[in-house]
Amino acid sequence: MPPSDTYFTSTMSVKEKKLFEKWYTDQVNSNYTFNFKEEIISYCISDVQILREALESFRKLFMETAEFDPLTECLTLSSACMANFRKNHLGRSRIGIVPRGGYRGRQKSSIESLEWLDYESDKLGQTIQTNETSGEKRILNRYVDGYAEVTHDNGIVEKRIYQYHGCYFHLCIKCIPDEDSRRRIRGKNPCPYERTKQTTQLFRSEGYTVIEKWACDFAHDRQHNPDYINFFKNYTKKRTPPLNLRDAICGGRTSALYTHLKAKPGQKIKFYDVCSEYPHCQYKMAYPEGHPTIFLENDPLTPPVEHWNGVLKATVLPPSDLYLPVLPYKCNSKLMFPLCRTCAETMSQDVCSHTDEQRMLTGTWCAPEMHLALKKNIKLLHYMSYTNTQL
């Protein structure tokens, strides 16, 4: 027989070790000859037999419960559980599939077009519906850059459509007059310029007033038109990319508050470990259902902050004395929890001396994070976009 310590007796409980010692003594007293080759073959046969019987039992129980064969439809245990959830527990229209490019991916507006619409809105004296306000309006099965209904003194309501045309995309005849160049750009596709003219004519034939601006004309007006020059002289509005739901996902987080701590007299250091937090949250916590409702900046229908349940893109101002910051911020390929944007971006190790404007954080966060942040005296200055989900 091999020495008894080769059976890892140090890992056995007292009861297990007592049973082992009796078995081992009986083997020695009976002059049992340990043949490693025979033992390893016997072990492998027994191991495979146990695995086969266990797998057959698992397959039988799973088919009785889930009513499908996990061995033919799934590769892993987690995929089998997910398949069971989808087939037997997930109701119709419960989980919304996010469209490619996000919920506003189809409504893309250039910065120049939004700046022109800001100018037109200021000149008009009322808000123009755009991608940034309540979303682009759909008219005659087409999205338009801007839309406004203007009520005149005589009570007539004028329906205005604002269209901004990029010169390259729409093949401006002033910027690209050469027919060979225009044909090379569009390839086998219909002429964008002619299609743009047809769309404009369609809107006008249905009673809409169409105000158009070509990118080259807008650039010229900003340099030479006094009205444009005066407006943009004091124009300070800054724009950020649309809300991306994945920006709110930050992954696992660790933070070493102490690299080395010695217990003082009368002080105890305790170890606290959270077990199975991820499955606990999946089982116990609320999950969003269906597609969200999108609220843009200054939307009067936006619910109060305390009732938010989704994801928001916003600008906040943290206090300067919060010991454990709440909101994550991504910069320099790192996940940080700063109280000052500029300090984080410059990786400053000095005492912060920046202004409130330099300290502001702009990011995408989940509503529960924002609720806790507000309790910690972090100020929500404004939001650019908010997706409200049903839980």
UniProtKB/TrEMBL annotation:
Annotated GO MF terms: DNA binding; DNA-directed DNA polymerase activity; nucleotide binding
Record-level GO BP terms: DNA replication
Species: Frankliniella fusca
InterPro entries: DNA-dir_DNA_pol_B_mt/vir, DNA/RNA_pol_sf
Alphabetic keyword roster: DNA replication, DNA-binding, DNA-directed DNA polymerase, Nucleotidyltransferase, Transferase
Pfam families: DNA_pol_B_2 (PF03175)
E.C. numbers: 2.7.7.7
Coiled coil: none
Catalysed transformations (reactions): DNA(n) + a 2'-deoxyribonucleoside 5'-triphosphate = DNA(n+1) + diphosphate
DNA-directed DNA polymerase family B mitochondria/virus domain span: 16-164, 244-338
Protein name per Swiss-Prot or TrEMBL: DNA-directed DNA polymerase
Domain of life: Eukaryota
Similarity comment: Belongs to the DNA polymerase type-B family.
Enzyme class: transferase
Annotated Gene3D superfamilies: VSR Endonuclease (3.40.960.10)
